[in-house]
Amino acid sequence: MKQRLAVDRIRCDGHGMCAELLPELIRLDDWGYPIIASGPIPDHLLPLAKRAVDQCPVLALALRRVSEAA
Amino acid sequence: MTNLRLLDGRALELGAEGFAEHVRRLGPLPDAGPSLIDVVAASGLTGRGGADFPVGYKWRSIAAVSGGSAVVLVNGAEGEPRSLKDRLLMTARPHLILDGAFLAASAVGAKQVVLYIGEEHHSARQSMKRALAERPEHERRLVRIVAAPARYVAGTSSAAVHLVNAGVATPTSNPPTPHERGVDGAPTLVQNVETLAHVALLARTRQLPGTLLVTMAGGVQRPGVLEVERETTIGEAVAMAGGATEPSQAVLIGGYFGSWIEISKALTLFIDPQALRAYGLSLGCGVIGMLPASRCAVCEVAGIMRYLAGESSAQCGPCFFGLRALADACSRISEQGTNSSDLLRMRRWAAEAPGRGGCHHPDGAVMFLQSALQTFGDEFAQHPPHLRRSA
Amino acid sequence: MNDTLLWYTTRGAGAVTLVLLSASVVLGILSALRVQSATWPRFLTTGLHRNLSLMTLVFLGLHIVTAVVDPFTHLGWLTAVVPFSSYYRTFWLGLGTIAFELLLAVVATSLARGFIGHGTWRVVHWLAYAAWPIGVLHGLGTGTDAFSVWFFPLTVICVGAVLTALGYRLIAGSRDPLAAPRADFEAAVQQKEA
User: Fold this and answer.
1) Which of A7, A63, C2, C109 is most buried, by the most CB atoms less than 10 A from its CB?
2) Whether this model's pTM surpasses 0.90
3) Is B63 a member of any domain?
């Protein structure tokens, strides 16, 4: 079951932990807010993605099934 | 009945059309129910609040989850600075709007109606209040009136619902959308006042009025609201507004979240939202602004970008900082002249901002700017410094 | 078994708990301050904070178990969970019980953060600011060697570190660049009478 990353933009406070833990899929814009690669997460990055979701200080990051609406 | 128009009836200068007059002219409120949804869907009516969303589809999805507990939120916030049509409709034809609201409530199974009226639209609110008092008791008791703060994003669906639920009109995250969980947690149908006015006539005649309300703004002799046929061109609408005050260079269609079109291409465009969509344009909230050739396009765009940046609810970094950076870059180009680094950065920021806010504010602002960069490409690339900003 | 060993273990584990808890509080404050550098990413701060908190509980557990099991102290298991139920130094030991339970709540909610949501987690986590001073007072009030040559300076260092970090936290204010503009906007769109 393919999953993708989704971020609650209002909850996100620009801590940037997600980009530290998953630089392959997340980078920060000029002000420290995440730019997330779209599309399903490659299998080998799934554990790191789960860790990034778990470690977000404000629980703004989540995993969603790819078939779900944005 | 033949095609009725929204502004038929009592002359506008004479104020609101009262209940008795309204019923005499149009007949009583038709019986409705879920069957009205099919009529609305078949008519092809799309929302007149800015998003141009198919109304029948919206009603169907709310009715499916309503279970009798849905809420109808009548959106009369009209936060778009140059738009006047919603105010006019609320002031002059409040019963059309109320009819539409009660018809919608009956169709989707709602037991609450909220009138969300811009806090600064005093005559509109007075008119809606008086009109409500004239309605029968079984309708009156469903309704409450809530004042919408006079800020741009306060007119967004989720902000309206948030104000009613929690007393503050900031947009909220979705999921869930207001359609899923809105006022008091119930599925909420948010509909613009003009859309509901269309429904009021549609339910009686089984056909749409065939007209729309637009607000003519900027360099026309008689700025203000016009009711025009869908097959009216922009050029004809300008003529109806007394013609341009001076030669124009471009038209902004759809207000501050709309698109700029060069004047030669604009005048022949039909106002019909469907026709505009074929060109990748949107009538949006119906504001049509004429930009005189004597005005500096870059300065106008910079001014509007500064406004839009200032209207960010500051809940999301990409919107608050992104729009501010874009507005600052436009202002620098406007005041100090073109520089290539600002142009480059603007392209990058404009590519990064959309879709990264909690609502569509950054998306709308960036679309506005992209259309400006396309239509006024030469002006942006070769702008000399202005010592003073134009108004 | 050697009763003296149990007694030393209780005191030693208690001291280690104090150090680990203080370090954890400091790291938690540094995390809130969004401290980082090119060589010290934020997940290092938060990772250490978590690991040290869990270690704190381990040593705290050891401290409690050895204290209760030790026949010399005449403490029953009840004293570990019911505050102020011991005969020995009732008040100061009771503080320890309270600190222990506050820490349990903090750690339990942190482990279950995904289920209870950020809001609830945050409110409970503030209890850490109560658990630490209560724990410090317990250490000074209960220990026979509280003011000894090794424990007292250790306590002073731990307290100094936490108070310094707290000082920075209070001066720095919010590290969220949107805190002020968001508050301004919210104030502007509050509901008024219709």
Assistant:
1) A7
2) yes
3) yes
User: Which of B171-175, B324-328, C162-166 comes out lowest in average pLDDT?
Assistant: B171-175
User: Is B388 domain-assigned?
Assistant: no
Residues whose CB falls within 8 Å of the CB of residue C154, separated by 6 or more in sequence, listed in order: C15, C18, C19
For B182, counting Cβ atoms within 10 Å of its Cβ (0-12 exposed, 13-18 middle, 19+ buried), the class is buried
Contacts of B207 (CB under 8 A, 6+ apart): B3, B43
Judgement on whether residues B271 and B310 belong to the same structural domain of the protein: no
Q: Based on the domain organization, do B231 and B307 belong to the same domain? A: no
Q: Is this complex's ipTM strictly greater than 0.85?
A: yes
Flag whether B386 is in a domain. Answer: no
pLDDT category, C2, cuts 50, 70, 90?
A: low
Give CA separation, B196 vs B76, B80, B369, C26, C51, in Å. 11, 19, 31, 59, 59
pLDDT in tens, B379-389: 999 999 876 55
Helices C3-32 and C128-142 cross at an angle (nearest 10°) of 150
Identify whether residues B144 and B230 lie together within a single domain.
no
Q: Mark which residues 132-151 of B lie under 8 Å from C by CB.
A: 144-147, 149, 151
Considering CB atoms only, which of A10, A30, A35 is closest to B316?
A10
Which of B321, B352, B358 is nearest residue A10 as measured by Cβ atoms?
B358
CATH code for the domain of B308? 1.20.1440.230
CA distance B196 to B202: 10
Q: Which amino acid is at C58?
A: V
Q: Best residue in B168, B321, B363 to probe A by mutation, most A CBs within 10 Å? A: B321
Buried b (16+ CB within 10 A) or exposed e, C106-127: bbebbeebeeeebeebeebbeb
Task: Give the whole-angstrom CA distance, residue B269 versus residue B236.
Answer: 10
HSE, CB side, 13 Å, CA atoms: give it for residue B102: 20
For residue A66, report the phi and psi dihedrals to the nearest 5 degrees. -65, -30
Size of interface A-B (CB pairs under 8 A): 39
- List, as own/partner pairs, every contact residues C56-59 make where C-beta atoms lie below 8 angstroms and the sequence separation is at least 24, other chains included: C56/C17, C56/C20, C56/C21, C56/C24, C56/C103, C57/C103, C57/C104, C57/C107, C59/C13, C59/C16, C59/C17, C59/C20
State whether residue A8 sits within 8 Å of chain C by CB: no
**Co-location of B146 and B198 in the same domain:** yes
Q: Which CATH number fits domain A3-65: 1.10.10.10, 3.30.70.20, 1.10.540.10, 3.30.70.100?
A: 3.30.70.20
DSSP state of B280: T
pLDDT tens digit sequence for C18-61: 999 999 999 999 999 999 998 999 999 999 999 999 999 999 99
The residue type found at C145 is D
